[in-house]
Amino acid sequence: MINTANGMISTSSSSANAQSPGLKTSFKTPEGRYKLHYEKTHPSGLLHYAHGKTATQVTLAHLKDKPAPSTPTAASSSFNASSGVRSAAARWLGSGNGSRALGFVAGNGGNKSVSSTSRIGSLGASSSSNSMTNTNFDGKGTYLIFNVGDAIFISDLNSQDKDPIKSIHFSNSNPVCHAFDQDAKDGHDLLIGLNSGDVYSVSLRQQLQDVGKKLVGTQHYNKDGSVNNSRCTSIAWVPGGDGVFVVAHADGNMYVYEKNKDGAGDSSFSVIKDQSQFSVSHARYSKSNPIARWHVCQGSINSIAFSFDGAYLATIGRDGYLRVFDYSKEQLVCGGKSYYGALLCCAWSMDGKYILTGGEDDLVQVWSMEDRKVVAWGEGHNSWVSGVAFDSYWSSPNSDGSGETVMYRFGSVGQDTQLLLWDLEMDEIVVPLRRGPPGGSPSYSTGSKSSHWDNVFPLSTLQPAPSIRDVPKISPLVAHRVHTEPLSGLIFTQESVLTVCREGHIKIWLRPSVPESQSSNSETVLSTSFKDKPLLSSKIGSSSYKQ
Length: 547
Hints:
Blueprint: H1 9-19, E1 26-29, E2 32-40, E3 58-63, E4 141-148, E5 151-156, E6 166-169, E7 175-180, E8 190-194, E9 199-202, H2 204-209, E10 219-221, E11 232-237, E12 244-249, E13 253-258, E14 279-282, E15 292-295, E16 301-306, E17 312-317, E18 321-326, E19 331-337, E20 343-348, E21 354-359, E22 363-368, E23 373-379, E24 385-390, E25 408-414, E26 418-424, E27 461-463, E28 473-474, E29 478-481, E30 487-492, E31 496-501, E32 506-510, H3 516-520, H4 523-532
Parallel strand pairs: 19-27, 23-28
Antiparallel strand pairs: 1-2, 2-32, 3-4, 4-5, 5-6, 7-8, 8-9, 9-10, 11-12, 12-13, 13-15, 14-15, 16-17, 17-18, 18-19, 20-21, 21-22, 22-23, 24-25, 25-26, 26-29, 30-31, 31-32
């Protein structure tokens, strides 16, 4: 799937039909029809044999105006990139992003003649004085960053070209997660976590300026697994943390880093006495980086997500538990278990009231922070749920005028190749049939605060899996098969919905209210919407929200 779609939407759609027989190029919702606008993918000739070992994640990154000349961009700068959870804002990139000022990097990923043997010989190389760069390139716009096999690809989100404009290759380990910080005060704004446990921070703009196929101007953390040699699973930029980020690993530990500290700083932590208990250990030296280790669980942490005010951090893991922490207090606040199996993805609502999770039980779980428990299960997927996201750009038709959200729209994708859209209105959720006292008759009750929640759990308690009879069920508004391969995530933007499969193929579905002519010339529209609603980019499986 490396055909280049340079034409109009009809070209993209017909191409999709040719490659994906049986798949429709639109789906209907109550507010109108979503249409397949175009697709993004990778040059298949560059894929490594280990491609199947990692699933594609996607981050949307919005580059603002080029910083003043006084801003350092040299390799010695110790700036870090942001997190997928809170990461950078995604938006359609203005046409200036691709005004083919990017022509000088077009061959960095889009050129199919480049052989797979041209990968770099080390994990991440620093910039050298011999690097070919275009320092006059501003790079303003929005980009799509995604990993496939042993490479990171960067695409111009406004262009209908399928192939990326830049590729960065790793020879000794695969990139598995990444994040972008739109509000980074210094040059480094992109984080990349590897299968080996290594973490890099770089400047996205600097990568676009360079014509090579390796990282330039890097800051290297956990080099060669010096702190933790297990796989990175998720990266999150701490909202308002001024250069602080969190990296989760497959051994159940999370590490807190400061991007302005030396990535090679000595860090040693106390021995974990009880692997089954949550614990936090701080570095013994002020110059250490990472500065703290959180032991969260036994087994892998599969994903992490910050609430948008940065107050709470949610983690989900192989053990099937959602855990919610008070980040500043470093305390476990609440959490609960899936109905069955591991949890694979999570996402916060913009107001911080709800958390979505999905996993191996094929359910979408809605967790209420107010009630401290599961308040709804979404039934509709036929296989594992691999990505969830709230659609914060969707306007509730029954807004009460108070400014509070009375209905939520969210989406989910799974290994069944389906995209499901859901509407959640807590006041209308019907609680399952409850058995009354002897002689009484069964009855239904409504609302998340109804008397059926008769068990009160104290703070810091992880709840067991609830009974299937005790949780209200909701059904999807829309179910549409969007890819031929299992999906790994979705992201909502103001103009579209992005769906991504594990193999690295991305589809952009235009919202009903957005004309194709507007989306193809969206520089003005996007710049306006950015001023009104700052965006946070997200990695795959996490959502992108307005503020």
